[in-house]
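Hi, here's the filled form for the chain we discussed.

Project: internal
Contact: R.S.
Residues: 39
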Amino acid sequence: NENFWTMQEQLIINCKEALDQAGFEIPFPQRDIHIRSNA
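And the returned structure, exactly as it came back:
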C-alpha cells in the first residue's frame, strides 16, 4: 500500500503524544563509559 509509511509514522507520533500526555516515560538502557589515561 502506498500509504504504509505515512500511516506508520502517524501511528508512532500519535502513540508518543498520547504517552506524553499521560505522563508515561519509557526508559532505555544506558551505559556510561569512562576512559582513564595512565599517562
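Let me know if anything looks off before we file it.
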